[in-house]
Design goal:
The protein is mainly beta. About 5% of the residues lie in helices and about 40% in strands. Strands 5-11-6-9 form a four-stranded antiparallel β-sheet. The protein has a three-stranded antiparallel β-sheet with strand order 8-7-10, with no helix packed on it. The two termini are about 20 Å apart. About 5% of the residues have low confidence.
Amino acid sequence: MSDKLIASLNIDPIVSIAGTSDGDATDAIHHDVGKALNSRFTVNFSDIDAIGGTGKWWYNNDYTLLGGSPFFNPSTDNIGGSITPSYTDGTAVDSSGTSTAKMCYVWIHHKGVDTTGAAVSHHIEVWNLFSSYIEPGETSFLMYGHSGARHDLWKIRCMTSDVKIEMLAVMRHNP
């Protein structure tokens, strides 16, 4: 038996319809779509293991993302110097700069607070060939596939000030 990640995504394309003197305002599913969009998938670690390396969990429920600093250094593969230096099973993350560990799937929650617990209003930015933003209180799930994302292109940052995030990652570890 192998570890696995089970995820689901639900999207409800809602339009608001203004009320009239004869009817109340209401929300409805967008007529062009006509339904809620749902998907569910499973990632088996054995599938990651089969392409080389070992599937590993990395988790931190109270990570401080430093303002202005990339989470992963875009010029090296060194992930150990940037994140908690071990996976959840206690295996060390290589901090020598020669790690070939790759980010396969990542869930990130912007807690909306700084290190003192004060509310923040700025987003965090996730880059990997494209850029996406996660606003305070929002969550994002990013999929890079079993082979994982290249670390020289992947980074997460907050340009303004330190913020707290929660993050779960499935990584392909190649010692």
